[in-house]
Specification:
Layout lengths: L1 E3 L7 E3 L1 E2 L7 E2 L27 E4 L4 E4 L2 E2 H7 L2 H10 L5 H13 L5 H8 L7 H11 L13 H27 L12 H10 L10 H13 L7 H10 L5 H12 L7 H12 L5 H9 L20 H16 L6 H15 L1 H5 L7 H11 L6 H21 L27
Antiparallel strand pairs: 1-2, 3-4, 5-6, 6-7
This protein binds carboxymethyl coenzyme *A.
Carboxymethyl coenzyme *A (CMC) binds next to loops.
Length: about 425
């Protein structure tokens, strides 16, 4: 029990709920009955829900999905197995995994009418704009399975979204290039299919490089979930109104689009291009430390990690594997990123604030080396994050839940009478 005393009034008793790992939480829901709200801009100290899916220890740089460390999953598992884990709480047996992969394959088609949505966009539309629109539009195609109180409908929706997201992502790219859409192939895996749908020319075949397919699978896996981040919280908030899951995921995609969230890897490459040459690094580090300059080192810092982001380590390793495979020796962007990282990690400003590279610091370099255009980076993140979003939505709607409705500290005018326009 915690006890809160305000203005020498009687203490207010607040229950403390125990976490299975990590900080316990003080339940402040009683405060509203006592005439108070809590104030926590950016929700830095606020737990908005309880969840069994993902645990992060930001001080130690630990990320666990249903208890399994991300490093072990990245090395020994794969994206679809992680999707199963996030949705079901346990790793699948061999048969369960085969069935799940088969289910995802079964849903790997998009309705012909949906293709028309893409052609409604200008070719130079940002692919994230297409993704927000087209994913939201999926609700129009599945009237018969939109009962959010039915567990089988929720499961089908989850599988459908995981299956269709890479197809829609590739379609957004092919539309921009004016290329015909192509369907996934049964002989390719999830990431291999994505590469094929992205890169196969209109009139020829495309050989999927297994090293790049494995790297891509790992990129999806590293992005799969990250507990109550801005986009996942958006999905939960939209879902708390009872909105359909496609609308909720479209809301999550919109939240992910911002440069402080999913747009950061694109911003890292822009920043490295702006820095230009290694001699300029010092100047930009100085700018990042200047409180009057909005410039920040993109791909550095995290709301939760005050240590090296464990995903960034795997990403850095994957980056080396991809560049080796592609025969890119001495990639100047990678060299500059590494030099910037070294300088920042030794700088008092970054050390004091515990700012370390995050998952986005190296992912842009890998994606660019594979040939993914920069405006598609956040779309890749979207595809990877889909199982996390839908797992959180399923977790929330499977049990009784309240509509999300934060309060505020009101600082506007107090009551006043209306003034007719001629007297203002
Ligand atoms: N470069 C320079 N200074 C920074 C940076 C940075 N990248 N990040 C934080 N700081 C400073 C910030 O200015 C502040 O300094 P002071 O205490 O003197 O005012 C201090 O560190 C704390 O920063 P904050 O903005 O209060 O921290 P936050 O938790 O609100 O922001 C963040 C987290 C990720 C938005 C921020 O670190 C940032 O903007 N990073 C760059 C963008 C980025 O890489 N985003 C990807 C996040 S990981 C992918 C994902 O999960 O979506």
């Amino acid at each position: 029990m915690a006890s809160l005393t305000v203005d020498s009034k009687d203490p207010i008793e607040l229950p403390v709920h125990a976490a299975s790992v990590g900080p316990d939480v003080i339940d402040v829901s009683e405060l509203t009955n006592q005439g108070y709200f809590t104030y926590d801009p950016g929700f830095v100290s606020t737990a908005s829900c309880n969840s069994n899916i993902t645990y992060i220890d930001g001080d130690e740089g630990i990320l666990l999905h249903c208890g399994y460390p991300i490093e072990q999953l990245a090395e020994r598992s794969d994206f679809l197995e992680l999707c199963y884990l996030l949705l079901n709480g346990e790793l699948p047996s061999a048969t369960e995994k085969d069935d799940f992969v088969g289910e995802i394959r079964r849903h790997s088609k998009v309705d012909d009418q949906l293709r028309n949505f893409f052609t409604g966009f200008r070719r130079d539309a940002h692919p994230m704009a297409m993704m927000c629109g087209v994913v939201g539009a999926l609700a129009a195609f599945y009237h018969n399975s939109l009962d959010i109180t039915d567990a089988s409908h929720r499961r089908d929706t989850a599988h459908r979204l995981i299956a269709k997201m890479p197809i829609l992502a590739a379609m957004s790219r092919r539309h921009a290039l004016g290329l015909p859409f192509i369907d996934p192939r049964d002989d390719l895996g999830y990431a291999g299919n994505f590469l094929h749908m992205m890169f196969a020319p209109a009139d020829g075949d495309y050989e999927v490089n297994p090293v790049l397919a494995r790297a891509f699978d790992r990129i999806f896996l590293l992005h799969a979930d990250h507990e109550q981040n801005a986009s996942t919280s958006t999905v939960r908030l939209a879902g708390s109104t009872g909105a359909n899951p496609y609308a909720c995921i479209a809301a999550g995609i919109a939240a992910l689009w911002g440069p402080a969230h999913g747009g950061a890897n694109e911003a890292v490459l822009n920043m490295l291009a702006e820095i230009g040459t290694p001699e300029n690094i010092g100047k930009f580090v100085k700018r990042a430390k200047d409180p009057d300059d909005p410039f920040r080192i993109m791909g550095f810092g995290h709301r939760v990690y005050k240590n090296y982001d464990p995903r960034a380590r795997v990403m850095q390793q994957t980056c080396r594997e991809v560049l080796d495979e592609l025969g890119v020796e001495n990639d100047p962007t990678l060299q500059m990123a590494q030099q910037l990282e070294r300088i920042a990690l030794e700088d008092e400003y970054f050390v004091d604030r515990r700012l370390y590279p995050n998952v986005d610091f190296y992912s842009g370099i890998i994606l660019r080396a594979i040939g993914i255009p920069e405006d598609m980076f956040t779309v890749i993140f979207t595809t990877g994050r889909t199982p996390g979003w839908i797992a959180h939505w399923c977790e929330m709607v499977a049990v009784p839940y309240k509509i999300g409705r934060p309060r505020q500290l009101y600082t506007g005018a107090s009551r006043r009478d209306f003034v007719p326009i001629e007297k203002r």
